[in-house]
Amino acid sequence: MDGVSPKFVLPETFDGVKMEITGQLGMIWELVKAPVIVPLLQLAVYICLLMSIMLLCERVYMGIVIVLVKLFWKKPEKRYKFEPIHDDEELGSSNFPVVLVQIPMFNEREVYKLSIGAASGLSWPSDRLVIQVLDDSTDPTVKQMVETECQRWASKGINITYQIRENRVGYKAGALKEGLKRSYVKHCEYVVIFDADFQPEPDFLRRSIPFLVHNPNIALVQARWRFVNSDECLLTRMQEMSLDYHFTVEQEVGSSTHAFFGFNGTAGIWRIAAINEAGGWKDRTTVEDMDLAVRASLRGWKFLYLGDLQVKSELPSTFRAFRFQQHRWSCGPANLFRKMVMEIIRNKKVRFWKKVYVIYSFFFVRKVIAHWVTFCFYCVVLPLTILVPEVKVPIWGSVYIPSIITVLNSVGTPRSIHLLFYWILFENVMSLHRTKATLIGLFEAGRANEWVVTAKLGSGQGAKGNTKGLKKFPRIFKLPDRLNTLELGFAAFLFVCGCYDYAHGKNNYFIYLQCPFSSVGLGGSGLMSPVSIYRRMIQQRMYDEYRARYLRAREDTISKLPDPLSCPTSRQRMLSVLVFCPIGGKPFCLSVPNLDLDSSEFPDYDTFVTFIDELLAFSREENSLLYKVKLSLRKEDENDQYCVTRWIDSVANPKLNHLDVECVLVNRKFLEVVPQSLYIQCDTLVYLRLHRVSFGELKSVSLPCLKTMRDGFVDVFEREGTGVFIDAPRLKYLKFEDDLSDVKVITNSVSLEKVNVAFVFGENDFAHVIDLPKRNMVSNFFNSISGVKEMKISLYTMEFLDYNWVWESYDPLPQFCNVSTLKVTFSVLNLDMMMPTLLESFPNLKSLVLKLDDPSSEKAANIKRFNGGSVDMEVARYFLEKSQVLKKLFSRPDLMEERFSKQQRMYDESYIRAREDTISNLPDSLLCQILSYLPTKDTVGTSVLSHRWKSVWLLVPNLDLSSSEFRHYDTFVSFIDKLLAFSREENSLLYKVKLSLQKEDGNDQSCVTRWIDSVANPKLDHLDVECTLANRKFLEVIPQSLYVCDTLVYLRLHRVSLGELESVSLPCLKTMRLEHNVYASDASLELLISSPPALEDLSVSLTSFHVDYLLDSGVLIDAPRLKYLKFDDDLSDFKIITTNTVSLEKVNVAFVFGEHDFIDLVDLTKRNMVSGFFKSISGVKEMKISSYTMEFLDFNRQDELYDPLPQFCNVSTLKVAFYVSNLDMMLPTLLESFPNLKSLVLKLDYYDPSREEEAADVRLSSVVVPQCLLSSLESVKIKRFNRGPVYMEVARYFLENSQVLKKLVLEFRCLVVEDGFNMLRELIALPRRSSSCQVLLC
């Protein structure tokens, strides 16, 4: 054996074969490498470098934006309207919106108590909060535990419901969608979603909901996640670094720049209207949250991210759970990108740059490129370049770019910057799974919709139950379960590449790549640290104990209130109800920005002063500025003489809007001085009333918003000899009461409309009647106000003018040509001379209100009287005899009665008893004219009055009867026949006939025909025939004689047959009402409508039950003088208005297009008919549209080929009825067609009861506001208004968006008085865009 050599064992032939195979492989590699491998690998390098640059640009862009946001951007509270929702003892919880909290869970044994307990502890009124636990668990034990927990909280008064499903269709999206279908959800406006491991703070809703309440264009408010187990192990620290960057940078940048970001699936508040508008939850991908966010954003909704609002949550602490989570988070966005990219491109509601941001930045770079470049470049391409040294990778691409990207990613978690090296290795490992998931999502492979719930171990729980939690932590001890073969395979590949580079290359840094894959492949990631868990439990226990102590020991601020509030007055008892109801730790009344008190409501004046002082001191401490102050004081000499001065100085703040201070019964020497601060610090003061105070010496005045001074009056208390100079260019109403000033000057009086000259010139002026300067002052004053429209002159003013007019050199009053209304008080001493002289100065006066001072005095006896009556009667005689166009003369009967003597009353009574029946002496023609205003039944009743009246009623030219007024129909027919026979015999022609018949099958079927033929005479003016409850086959035919009545002005026919018309001659017909009649043909109907040349008012109602033929050519209306048109028709396919529509002013489109039209949405001819009809009436001034018409327009609007409504530029008044199911889309669309609308009357109908629940969630979008709301709409009336969510939403829409709205009238419908008050409070709390808008209930 010692002589045996290797060559004996391995012959030389074998060595040759071995060398030959190696050489052949090397030769093949060299042949393929240059033409194939090198170009392909070089191309891969270029592609990866390009993707790296794209990722770098994205990271740098977001870095720049986030720096600008942190340094210069306003906080969300400044960018959006935010007003905290306060508790209100008077309004109760009605000012809080109803919020739904949804908690979806699946076999959450360890954490189900966390989210349920946290949701139940939210600081929100219990009657305005609904909690849904959506349990899809398959473990019966877990189901029982969750249901028991829900019942436990429900027993404590929490409104919590436990919901389960029969299957898990749709997974989380299916559960959320099913939860929104519950009937009680229709009362909820917002929905909050928390996963099972999320624990919101109690103030979560109070910090987030106001953004949605006050900003109707915001659909989503997203909070940040805070991880309770981030220190548990190295795996959770790595996750924290990645997610912190996502929340700190990506979400913040999206919210600040485009108001868009991906919803994180939990810890967010959605507006339910936005969810419904976007199409609801869909389960087509594993990222149902992102899917909903993208769809809502494409419909114009905005999103808001609140970085300082954090919610505790748990990170997966095992690599297996984390890997499944990352697969879902990577596969879902790629799959969603595949399905929605074309929808995003075609969308027309969002701007171009937002589309670019969503497609390129949000989806392509972050969800696709970021995963591919990390794995393909750093884990595949770079290692392969070691084996192909001909391919060079620039150092900037392999080192600099990834280093910059890594540093930028570290800003989210500064405390973990020392773990940055491990984070790089960890991200390289996870890029393998993310890239794989991205490809599955893009190509929609087998695992595209795989959903594996992320396992939670409850490692973030507090001290309660922590021992059990430790026992339940899963541990993996079997080696085969800890091996991850895919990671180990890549670890081997990278290890070989690193060794090869170490031996033959120069890039020795590739060796490190085998470390993370090896560690993860062996299951070394995610090992839990019991020490960190115990530390977290201790911290949670300390927090819970501290919070419990704080809630128990919070301060009782109610005891700080002063004792006088317990005084037993009715107003104080009402105030005490508000005071002794603590809300949020302080009395409610102290937060009210209004102060309205009267010193008479307090036991003594000093108590009143003390209370005001303490209340104002509290307001200063809390920085609670008052905007309305009204004080009434009754001071005595010994009272505090400086309280008013300091109070006004205290409330004179930049927000003060209304100030009313009244000091009564005050000695003049104790008048208080108004401080200077009132005139320079109150930039927002609108109303100012000061009574019996001293102004002192004013240095400067700055009141830019002041509109009303002393109830709209200018009340000046001046020193003698200085005069009053008024320069108010926007002044509309002036009341001047002054007995001191020698000079009154008005300048810039163009806008002055109303003047009350109340004792303008004082008693001391009567001594200076020969003073020429004073008389010139009088003349100049009246000249300066000569352009007003309404004037009131007092008694003392008229006496002064009477004294001065005795001087010939005195100039008369100027001509007040614009004054249409005058109110004046005369003394009986100067009435005879002054009244005609005064009226000469008002040539265009339309209304005069006259008051006489003491006309029953002895002085009045010297007045010359023509009839020997009282002064009142003399004045009445004067106007009755002299006024040529006088229409009404009013008197005061109560005052006149007091002035009559006893003898006068006795005389009147005796005259009434003995007066003659003068009416019976009137001629028959006049009696018939009087009786013509009564129904025929009452006219016949006059026959029993006397022999004179026995037969007068037979001569009355009116016939107004109903068959229901007779016991039998045959009696009614017999009476009409006899009456008409008498009229023919006496040649007494009827000119007004109104008949109402309720016929049965067995009745006379030809009576109406012969009656109309009988009354169709040359004098017939008015014909109204109504047949109700008539079988169609018994409808009577209108005779041909009716259509040649030359004097007929009004025609109404209801449920009759018109037959075939031969000719029509109705030259005087102005009003035509055709209701549910039968027509022989459409030509007959057109002939009847188009023949009357003077037709001004037309109403046509057509239904399928009352037509003998099929209208296939439509109704042609040719009425050049038509002013009002009502068209109620569900039969005609064409509604044609000819070009003669210049005079058309009012249209009532009452179900113009019938029910059968709803199935013809694809009929282009029908759509053109709709468009043509509305274009033909586009010049009207007033329009009424029924709910059926709006339903038809809504159906047709869904077709892309349907033309929108034309612009009704002349319409100022619109009355429209909506079904609530199409209100949200059709109301803004309809208003866009009425740019100059001034008045809107809105009525809401419930069309389909099964859709009533869906309709309750209607939300009107404010993204695009119609032009009329911004420029012209002044009045809105909502009929049959109640407290329902749809009506409140409509009221909110107009109040928040109407810029010039003056009044919102609500036709109130409420059976319970308390509901009415609650509704009124909700309406008052709604924000108003128009400062002058008033809400009126009727």
TrEMBL record:
InterPro entries: F-box-like_dom_sf, F-box_AtFBL13-like, F-box_dom, FBD, Glyco_trans_2-like, LRR_dom_sf, LRR_FXL15/At3g58940/PEG3-like, Nucleotide-diphossugar_trans
Location of the F-box domain: 916-969
Membrane topology listed for this record: Multi-pass membrane protein
UniProt xrefs under PROSITE patterns: FBOX
One Pfam family linked to the record: LRR_At5g56370
Transmembrane spans: 43-73, 356-388, 400-426, 509-534
Zinc keyword on record: no
The entry's keywords: Cell wall biogenesis/degradation, Glycosyltransferase, Golgi apparatus, Membrane, Transferase, Transmembrane, Transmembrane helix
Subcellular location: Golgi apparatus membrane
PANTHER family referenced in this protein's UniProt entry, alphabetically: GENOME ASSEMBLY, CHROMOSOME: A02, GLUCOMANNAN 4-BETA-MANNOSYLTRANSFERASE 9
Protein name: F-box domain-containing protein
Organism: Brassica napus (Rape)
